[in-house]
Amino acid sequence: MASISREEVTDEVLMMRFQGGDRAAFAGLVRRHKTNVYNFILRQVRAPQIAEDLVQDVFVKIVQNAADFKHEARFSTWAYAIARNVCIDHLRKAALRRHPSLDQATSTSSGEEGPTLAERTADAHPTASVERVAIGAELGHRITHAVERLPAEQREVFLLREIGHVPFKDIAEITGVPENTVKSRMRYALERLQEALAEYEDYARALR
Amino acid sequence: MDCQKFDQVVMDALYEELDELTYAALRRHVESCARCGEAWNGLRATREVAMLPLEEPSPGLEDRILAAVTDAQRTTPWHRKALRALAWAGSHAMRPQLAMAALFFLVIGSSLLLLRAKPGTVGITPVRVTERGVPAPDEGDLQAPAQAPPPPIAAAPMAAAAADVAEGAKKSKDDAADKGAAKETEGAGKALAEARATRDGSGCDASLRLYDDIGARYPGTPQAADAMWEAAQCQRSLGNTDRARELYSALKQSDGYKARAEEALQESETANQTNNAGGGLVANRAAAPAPAPPPAATSTVAAAGKPAGKPAPATPTAEEEAQRAKAAPGGGPGRNVNAAPKRAAEQHPAPANAAY
């Protein structure tokens, strides 16, 4: 019951309360958004530990830049813009440090059999994807895999829309590309996923 | 709706960002269009199926986040604090009330500036107009001529003393004034000598104008006072007692002649009273011998003026009488009776004056 009453308060109201010095309001925002932000980052960096550190960075930045938040904007849009920048910074630094590229596993592997680093690290969390019980764990792995293999700009749009629930207009603002381009990227991403999941369609249809 | 429009709005429709009317049009289109229908069904199925499974982060993440946030808040860098303060001030500055107040002060302030610095008025002093109608350029210049006259008063009898009295700060100015005073004294002296010569030569009547002229041209100088005194004497000898008294009154202002002028005034007053008491005929008769004594007793200058001066009084007196008769409201001889003693009284004090 308590969770329902908390849900009634919008992110923006919580943010306003936090700006007024209410630390509990910020704890509410963390509770509400930490999982989605974590998944948004995880699907890009593919390392749970790094993803958790980055989530921490994102919330610290939210606090530090709380004064910049304008209440006419959506909190989630603002927060995901910060999360996106944190991800981009991390990936750029990682590339500079010549860490083994996370994409290399798929690009060098012949076919779809070779598991990516993300898949290997994801396996360390057997409790993943518990919410979508209708879809089997196998399908979940296939989807995650397909999303991780999407081109970065399509994956970014897909994650922002599917995990962040950011409207296309705001995604265009965050990524700095026209809204039509954002929608095109989204459509391409969905079509790729459709292809990747073709062989599981019957399975999924059977589950429905 | 056509296929092109379908491609534009299909994503909005899929994620419930489309208005109901367009959504209904899309639904009608996909039912009639095989290509769009297939695409729509495929995308919708994918969206429903390909829901990305969300992984839960480790349970301790929330606490770690809150700890990190608390830590970050405690150690907020000074420049970030400054920026935050600036942002706060900025957000307040943009509030309508403050903006209006700022605008108000800006408008008032700028209008005051404009009032003060009205074009064409800077550096131009107001034009002053003197009695003569000549524009005086500056206040300082205005004072200079005003200061110039005083020295001449002291210049003639004691030029050195006048120089001492003059203030050291305006020495050069005063020097110039002294020179001017010396010139004036010289001119006044000449004019006085000329007037005396005229009086001696042509009589009091002719010299009066010259005496008046000295008074007008060299006001305040001792020569002017001399001229006034002599003019008064002349007026008295001519029988113009009123005019003489006026001059005596004026002379009371002059230091050198104050006592003499007062005395002369008093004498004329008493003479007037005596004559009034005496009666018209007596006074009239007394008027004839009266002019005689003064020249006899007065200084050489006055004595020299006597022969010339004697015939002169007759004419002006007659004229004066005629004028008074005309001016008098009654106009009859009765009035003349009154006028006669007055004239006698005017002329009578002369001997008393001679004693001086």
Automatic annotation (TrEMBL), chain A:
Keywords: DNA-binding, Sigma factor, Transcription, Transcription regulation. It comes from the Bacteria. Residues 29-95 form the RNA polymerase sigma-70 region domain. GO terms for molecular function: DNA binding; sigma factor activity. InterPro entries: RNA_pol_sigma-70-like (IPR039425), RNA_pol_sigma-70_dom (IPR014284), RNA_pol_sigma70_r2 (IPR007627), RNA_pol_sigma70_r4_t2 (IPR013249), RNA_pol_sigma_r2 (IPR013325), RNA_pol_sigma_r3/r4-like (IPR013324), WH-like_DNA-bd_sf (IPR036388). Residues 142-193 form the RNA polymerase sigma factor 70 region 4 type domain. The keyword Transcription applies. GO terms for biological process: DNA-templated transcription initiation. Residues 99-127 are annotated as: Disordered. It comes from Polyangium fumosum. The lineage of its organism: Bacteria, Pseudomonadati, Myxococcota, Polyangia, Polyangiales. Belongs to the sigma-70 factor family. ECF subfamily. This is RNA polymerase sigma factor.
